[in-house]
């Protein structure tokens, strides 16, 4: 009777550990998603600034 109860207890502990790990993975995936979104926003802003600088430089070259 001891071994079946022990097996059930170990199975429950294993499921609890997997549940905790799943929550940690979910939280980290959300954090990574926020970082990727922030990086994409910063890259878009830098690309727009580069485009404006290129237009300004082209006008300066045309003026020469």
From TrEMBL:
Name of the protein in its database record: Membrane protein
Organism: Streptomyces capitiformicae
